[in-house]
Amino acid sequence: MKKTAVVVGSGFGGISAALRLKAMGYEVSIYEKLDQLGGRARVFKKSGFTFDAGPTVITAPFLFNELFQLFGKDRSKYVKFVEVEPWYRFYFSSNKKTFDYSSCLKKTEKEISKFNNKDVIGYRRLLNFSEKIFNIGFNKLSFVPFHDFFFMLKQIPTLITLKSYLSVFQLVSKFIKNEQIRQAFSIQPLLLGGNPIETTSIYNLIHFLERKWGVHYAMGGTGKIIKGFEKLMKEENIKIFKNSEVTNIVFDKNVAVGIKVKKRKISADKIILNTDPAFTYKYLINTKLNKKWNKKKIEKMDFSMGLFVIYFGTKKKYSKIAHHTIWMGKRYEGLLKDIFNKQILAEDFSLYLHRPTATDKAMAPKNCDCFYVLSPVPNLKNNIDWKNYGKIYQEKILIALEKSILPELRKNLITCFHMSPSDFKKDYNSLYGTGFSISPIFRQSAWFRFHNKSENFKNLYFVGAGCHPGAGVPGVMSSAKVLENILKNE
Ligand SMILES: Cc1cc2nc3c(=O)[nH]c(=O)nc-3n(C[C@H](O)[C@H](O)[C@H](O)COP(=O)(O)OP(=O)(O)OC[C@H]3O[C@@H](n4cnc5c(N)ncnc54)[C@H](O)[C@@H]3O)c2cc1C
Fold first, then answer.
1. Are residues 213 and 234 in the same domain?
2. Residue 225 belongs to what domain range?
3. Which residues line ligand 1 (CB under 6 A)?
4. Could you report the per-residue pLDDT of 59-79, keeping only the tens digit for each?
5. What pLDDT is attached to residue 416?
6. Where a domain ends, among 217, 249, 281?
7. Which range, of 140-144, 246-250, 391-395, 416-420, averages the lowest pLDDT?
8. Are 10 and 159 contained in the same domain?
9. Residue 372 within a domain
10. How far apart are CA 335 and CA 345, in angstroms?
């Protein structure tokens, strides 16, 4: 008899785990609450436009390739990746300056020199230091389990040498003097749910990760990767159940033995959760044996910010707008404090604007443009009434874009809708409607983060943003590699 595994949730973490377990010989089923796979990487189709709901920046392509290679298949036959140029364009609304960050180091250095010539050398040094962090943080620690405290202790001297006690912003500031370039090179934690001022500088490894493998786009959108994985899973006989919310994990004392879906019990040898661990421990694990992560401890954790995302299609083409634009507002540290510490919705904002039609015309009808714009906002701990305020906030952002880089935007809209933290809570079962589960601060990283192997229960495992190594597509796909390592050694 083959061993059985159920995977709950079909984000990039859940799908990667399902495929890895299948390749290990398990009979695998995947249960997803929504009517499509992908989790935060799902797709909205409206009025001829294709909107990727979440991740758009594809890095570390080898992680995708590996999953196809497990079955002797070639990723490029399922989905094509192309490199984006420039990687990101920063637009500083205070002085209307732009900074193109690109695959060509020379071009990037020339752009830096528009702000401060001396920072060119600083950037080279930052990149060198990021490579050192990458060699440890990504190559050595991203794919190994962190549930052994002594293993964690052994890493501390190296983490100190790498200055992991500094925040991303503090480390960048040691190398870069210009305030705007400091901002540009320290925003990466925001892509993972962290405050650059507080997130451990181990995340500076992203600088080198981007340089090593580039910044890519999947033709047809990120949703096309999910479609490719869905096809692969069907070919490999992984059973897929959509519209199937798991309401409980079933235990026999301290052993996880199954899940409950629509009041039906489904038994399995291994239960893999791709759900938000904070939500799961609070609502899906109803046993007194849950000692490590009881409700009180969950409440005390530090949660990532929320996201307000507006999806819109225009009948005008904005050909000068890059694929990825980071639209920086007037404040940086003050705004971050408002979002993360004071948890208030500020009058101003900084934005990430996605225009996939810069690379891929098929995402919109002919002569039209497809966009989403994302604003980091406080999570639901602050009780913002998004049902009423959502439309007002949406309008404020559209006006700001219209006045700066997208002239006549509102009269050219064909379709426009948004997702607020309330939708993240409802659709993804995300505690406090966060964009990225718990935040990636030092005291919630590695051993201190939710473990990939449950501390209290046998046969129960986690993959995805809330557990080690953390959020972001490379992070959650790596969590499935960690799981594979755990299971191989059990
Ligand atoms: C707007 C946005 C933009 C982003 N941009 C990028 C980017 O450009 N690059 C990048 O690398 N990362 C990006 N990220 C982060 C990245 O998308 C996420 O960290 C990652 O996709 C999360 O994957 P996951 O495996 O944790 O699962 P999730 O995507 O969170 O999926 C979990 C799934 O489980 C389902 N589920 C929950 N509870 C249950 C239940 N009880 N029963 C059944 N199903 C359940 C949920 O509905 C969901 O479908 C972005 C995130 C967002 C929101």
1. no
2. 4-49+64-73+221-301+439-488
3. 8-14, 31-34, 39-41, 54-57, 191, 245-246, 274-275, 307, 309, 374, 427-429, 435-436, 464-465, 471-473, 476
4. 999 999 999 999 999 999 999
5. 98
6. 217
7. 140-144
8. no
9. no
10. 9
- Tell me, yes or no, whether 33 and 122 share the same domain: no
Cβ atoms 155, 445 nearer than 8 A? no
Whole-number Å distance, alpha carbon 9 to ligand 1 midpoint, is: 9
How far apart CA 273 and CA 10 sit, in angstroms, is 10
Does residue 319 lie in a domain region? no
Ligand 1 pocket test: pick from 10, 40, 307, 423 the residue with the most ligand atoms within 8 Å of its Cβ: 40
pTM exceeding 0.85 = yes
Using the predicted structure, report yes or no on whether residue 150 has a pLDDT greater than 90: no
Measured in Å, residue 55 CA sits from the centre of ligand 1 at 8
State in Å, rounded, how far the first CA of the chain is from the last one: 18
Position in ligand 1 atom list of the atom nearest CA 42:
49
Atom of ligand 1 nearest to the CA of 9: 34
For the CA of 40, the closest atom of ligand 1 is 29
> 380 vs 185, 282, 334, 345, 396, CA distance in Å?
28, 16, 20, 11, 20
Q: Which of 165, 200, 217 is the last residue of a domain?
A: 217
φ/ψ region of 470 (left if φ > 0, alpha if ψ in -120 to 50, else beta) reads: left
User: Are 25 and 105 contained in the same domain?
Assistant: no
Of ligand 1's listed atoms, the one at least distance from the Cα of 476 is 25
- Is the same domain home to 116 and 205? yes
Any domain includes 79: no
Same domain, 213 and 262: no
Tell me which residue has tokens 């960050």: 101
3-state secondary structure of 250: strand
Report the pLDDT value the prediction gives residue 159, as an integer from 0 to 100.
Answer: 87
| CATH number of residue 225's parent domain | 3.50.50.60
Ligand 1 pocket: which of 274, 279, 379 to mutate (most atoms within 8 A of CB): 274
| Confidence at 148, pLDDT banded by 50, 70, 90 | confident
Q: How far is the CA of 180 from the centre of ligand 1 (A)?
A: 30
Q: How far is the CA of 471 from the centre of ligand 1 (A)?
A: 8
Average pLDDT in the chain: 96
The domain tally of the chain equals 2
Q: What 3-state DSSP class applies to 242?
A: coil
Residue 361, SS3? helix
Residues 207 and 136 in one domain: yes
- 211 and 283 share one domain: no
**For ligand 1, atom 22, which residue shows the shortest CA distance?**
465
Q: Where are the beta strands (DSSP E) in 167-274?
A: 216-218, 239-241, 246-252, 255-261, 264-267, 270-273
Q: How far apart are CA 313 and CA 356, in angstroms?
A: 11
Q: What is the pLDDT of residues 340-363, one digit of tens each?
A: 999 999 999 999 999 999 999 999
Whether 236 maps to a domain, the answer reads yes
Say if residue 380's pLDDT is above 90: yes
